[in-house]
Structure formats: structure tokens, C-alpha cells
Amino acid sequence: MRANEEAVRPRDTLNAYLDRIADTMFDCVDAGTSAAGILPGGLDVPRRARALAGKLARRLTGAPGDSTDEAGARLRRSPLGIHGMGVDDSRPDASHGLGKPVRPWPSTRKNAAGHRVVTAPTNGAAGVIPAVLGYLVTHCPETGSAPGVAAGPATEDGARAPLCPHPHDSPASAPASEAGAEPGDEAPASSVEECAARRRALVHEFLLAATAIGALIKTNASIAGAEVGCQGEVGSASAMAAAGLAQALGGTPQQVENAAEIAMEHSLGLTCDPVAGLVQVPCIERNAIAAVKAINAARMALWGDGRHMVSLDVVIETMRQTGNDMLSKYKETSEGRPGRQRRGVLTGSGGPGPPSRAEPPPCPEPRAAPDHPPRPEPP
Asked: Is 228:221 a contact under the CB 8 Å cutoff?
């Protein structure tokens, strides 16, 4: 993908554009976790990212006395910001995995509020790739961060687990005991620069691999919910994110393809039925689910050797055929059952209940037997 792009533009121009995409994604997450209140549109959907970030910060930093706003502010002032979820690396028992489902909410809520997002591949699925990209730069040792969860299954044959540190990792990402430094010592400036350069290169690899998968899906099927349902939007975003993460973590082309196939295959048949036509319910939570799915798909692919039963091409074609067979009311028309539910049922605001099922027409009254003259008795 990089070779194709550099055939028509200089490398510096390409890298600058990739930086702009990544920075816009991260800025969107930061802005989303700073806002509170209700999303516009009339559904009264509350903004939850800021409160969730505050709760996570209190849990990870061990400061239960902080208010949500104070914890969230301290989280954003941390060296890694919201993308690092305020990780305290001195606590080996910290559950860093809790940061994964939080990131899609800020991006999708910024889209729902009409702010700028990166169309990746659509605005309705704009929270998936930023979430997985944030997971890459803050939870994976390849980017110089210390993961807070197990690196992967033990391997008897000496193969490297997918999330174990690479030999080329900088001392900044190595344990203090191995690097010969005391806990709390700052890494040399050269190490920090090397780590930042490697992180930037891996982010570029992530975005280019995701772009390749998105182009395949758009060319051979569709990324529009109005054509194939939500499988074309959130499903495609999950496949793109899974491929990008597998590529950045050192996967082979076969493993990268497998990661995208896993994420896309388990999104087949996903309908697009937004409530009231707004990209809020169920779109925001669906982005979070798709982000976690992408991370798991990449891990599963990296723990294998790339061989699998169904190819990505077959899954993309299946998605296209599924979209063609899908009823139009499940393609971004809000005419399906969830999209037609009344607001009170969904928000618990005490509104009227769902429309009752139509009563069958009453059975016709039995007709009286007609009066006939008595039959003559047989002789």
C-alpha cells in the first residue's frame, strides 16, 4: 500500500497526511472525553465517555476520593492522556484492558454531535479505528508501552507471542531491572525519541493496512449502510482495524488477511436500523463492540500461522450477497422494529409503550339458516 501511494506522491507528503489522520483521531477522542451533557437530536442520549474515563482513572490511579471531573482532568494531564487511560505502570495488577471499550464512545459521540471526525470508513463507524489505534500506542510493547495484560499464551516451541516485546524495542519499554535503571528513573532523550519514531512508524503501518482492507471491501462490496446494512459500515471498520493492528504487531500478510476475515465474518448480517434516523442508538455502543472484536480478531490471527478455512475475498462477497438479500427497511431507513420504537421505551422516560399488536378482525356472526318449506313426507 505504501508503494502504491509513494508512486504518486513523495514519502514526506504521505507521512504528513498519515500524521494528520492519526492526530485528528486522537484529538477527537480527547474532545469527546472532555464534553458532558446530552447529545443533540431529541433522543436525550447522555454523553458517557467523560464519566467512564473518570471512573477508570480512579480505578487505575488508586485515588477513590477524586470526583469524576477531577479524575478525568488528571487523566487527560497524564503523559499518555486519555489514549493511555491514565495507566499507572507501577501497579502491575492494573486492568489496562478496561480502556478498550471507552475509546469508541468519544469519537462516535463527536460524530453524533456534528463535530469533525475521520471517515473511517464512514461517519457512523468512525469510533472503531481510533479505539484500536489507541490500544496499539498505549497497550502494546512494540510501541514502547508496558501492557497491563498477559502478552499471550505460552509457546512450547519458542515462538514469540504476538504482544511480547520485540528485540528492537527501546530501553524505555524494557523493565527497569533489565535496563539497569532504578524504578522512577527517566529514560534518556535518545530512547524517548527512538520510541516515538517507532510508534509513529507503527501507526503509519496500521493506517496503511487498514486502508488496503477498506479499499478491497469498497471495491468488491460496499461500505454504505444504505446498500448492505451496518455490516458494511461497522463490520468493515472492524475488519480494517483488525488488519491494521495485526500489521503493526508484526503479522505476516496471511495473518493480516486472516485478522480482517475474522472480524468481517462475525459481522455478517448486521443490520442498520438507527432510532429516529440518528447515528446514536445503537451506533455508539456498536462501535465499542466492533473495536473489541477487532482486537480479539488480530490476536487470534497472530496466534495462528495465517491458514484458515474461509478467505477474506469469500467473506466480502458473502457480505455483498447478504446485503442484496436484506430487506430495505434494515438499510439505514429507520423502518425496522428498533428504529420505530418510541423514545420513551428506549430512554425509560416514562413515555407511552410500544404500539400494541393489531387485533385480528372479529369473526363474522354465524348466519341464520334460511327458512325453507317443509319437505313432503315420502309416501
From this structure: yes
